[in-house]
Amino acid sequence: MDKFIINGGHQLSGKVHISGAKNAAVAIIPAAILSDGVCRIENIPNISDVSELIRILYELGADIKMITDSIIEINCSHIASHVVPLEMTRRIRASSYLMGAMLGRFNKAKVAPPGGCDFGVRPIDQHIKGFEALGARATIETGMVNLSADRLIGSHIYLDVVSVGATINIMLAAVKAKGLTVIENAAREPHIVDLANFLNSMGADIRGAGTDVIKIRGVSSLGGTTYSIIPDQIEAGTYMAAVAGAGGDVIIDGVIPKHLESITAKLIEAGVTVEDLGDAVRVISNGHLTRCNVKTMPHPGFPTDMQPQFTTLLAAADGTSMVTEGVWDARFRYVDQLTLMGAQIQVDGKVAVIEGVDRLKGAPVQATDLRAGAAMVIAGLMASGTTEISEIQHIERGYENLIEKLTAIGADIRRVTVAPTDTSVSKAQ
Ligand code: EPU
């Protein structure tokens, strides 16, 4: 029942440090199942999607040591079961990686289908196509995905759609298969490269990650490792957008600017100054943005996970902008919430036409999913008056210490707990 309360209109200044990448962490943690040794993983983001996954591994029998908030040691050698039931997986999307990891380790897996953000149908046909190409039989029984193989054998797999999840799952299943697996039309996101680097640091032989052809030569075993996760491209982009919209001068620290190129290019087009400082970016904005058009695409295109945040910026830019969603079928559901704040946006299928208004106005709104929730936070920082955001558990799936980080750069944002029977704000934290 917690909410965020934001008093908008404050310029942002100072420095914000970016955490480890959610979408790398949720692939790398299940990948530890494939190791015979201890995996020390550093720069883990402290977010609920990650704690859910760690809890699943613990319940499956892994030894888990939290060394610090961001360093964990995982030893999965005692995991004996290949079954991951629904009550363990329903809260996160990335539980689908347990399919590839379990299949790669045991030659069989029985995993409940994933939960996660709801923006239309989220099929896994390309994951299954990959597993079958490696020799697994796939069936759905009593709501569980059932995979089994006598032995996984390397194969040539062409993905019909560029899928981050299928690329990762096939890498996990193929890393210990016999012979060579080639994934064509593979996704190229930074977290795919990060997973490949993690697996290679355990003794895998994966080449080409970051291009659309990935070659995996199966190895017989994987050992322990020490590995540090890359910074979160989308968390960084979200803070860049927050500064662009609210105005200010902020150094966004601990990033890989190359991963931010498409976001930086669009911010510059909208009138924002972005300086590359090597392992940081400096964002300077007077809060007055110019219209532009955006189309989301797989990496290195503009990321779909930045679409709601950018649409929010354009809602108060000069002129008419067009945002086209090129990855998901239904990722504009949050627009109704922006409309409550005075935005003028028409959505037709995968296209939103945005007539910029002078200023958004604070209102009670909902975080309808993770990035839509981040967009509501940005809207609240830009708006006049007070914005109250409910359903914030979606936001906490993917943003570490959001309140602390934003407060440190001058935002007026706080979290409150609302008593279940009382609709008024009862306790400030
Ligand atoms: N698709 C298929 N068949 C499949 C798999 C995907 O048709 O078997 C389609 C999807 O319907 C979608 C497109 O392919 O239209 C791309 O889906 P993808 O598989 O790449 O998405 P995902 O792996 O489920 C990851 C991120 C998402 C991010 C997308 C796209 C994780 C845990 N999730 O999802 O991140 O939007 O890639 O970049 O890595 C987020 O972080 O907020 C988030 C939703």
Annotate the secondary structure layout.
Elements: E1 3-7, E2 12-17, H1 22-31, E3 38-42, H2 48-60, E4 63-68, E5 71-75, E6 83-84, H3 86-89, H4 97-106, E7 108-111, H5 125-133, E8 137-141, E9 144-148, E10 156-158, H6 164-174, E11 180-184, H7 190-201, E12 205-207, E13 213-217, E14 225-228, H8 233-246, E15 248-253, H9 261-269, E16 273-276, E17 280-285, E18 294-295, H10 307-315, E19 320-324, H11 335-340, E20 344-348, E21 351-355, E22 364-366, H12 370-382, E23 386-390, H13 393-396, H14 402-408, E24 412-417, E25 427-428
Parallel strand pairs: 2-15, 3-14, 6-7, 10-11, 18-19, 22-23
Antiparallel strand pairs: 1-23, 1-24, 3-5, 4-5, 7-9, 8-9, 11-13, 12-13, 15-17, 16-17, 19-21, 20-21, 24-25
Helix pairs in contact: 1-2, 1-7, 4-6, 5-6, 8-10, 8-12, 10-12
The structure holds uridine-diphosphate-2(N-acetylglucosaminyl) butyric acid (EPU).
Describe this protein with a few key phrases:
alpha+beta; about 30% helix; about 25% strand; 4-stranded mixed sheet; single chain; binds uridine-diphosphate-2(N-acetylglucosaminyl) butyric acid; 5-stranded mixed sheet; globular; about 425 residues
Can you put this structure into words, describing what you see?
Helix 6 (about 165-175) links the parallel strand 10 (about 155-160) and strand 11 (about 180-185). The longest helix is centred in the middle third of the chain and has 14 residues, at about 235-245. With about 425 residues, the protein is an alpha+beta fold. The protein has helices at about 20-30, 50-60, 85-90, 95-105, 125-135, 165-175, 190-200, 235-245, 260-270, 305-315, 335-340, 370-380, 395, 400-410, and strands spanning about 5, 10-15, 40, 65-70, 70-75, 85, 110, 135-140, 145-150, 155-160, 180-185, 205, 215, 225-230, 250-255, 275, 280-285, 295, 320-325, 345-350, 350-355, 365, 385-390, 410-415, 425-429. Strands 22-23-1-24-25 form a 5-stranded mixed beta sheet. The protein starts with a strand and ends with a strand. The model is unreliable at about 425-429 (pLDDT under 50). Uridine-diphosphate-2(N-acetylglucosaminyl) butyric acid binds near residues 122, 187, 327 and 370.
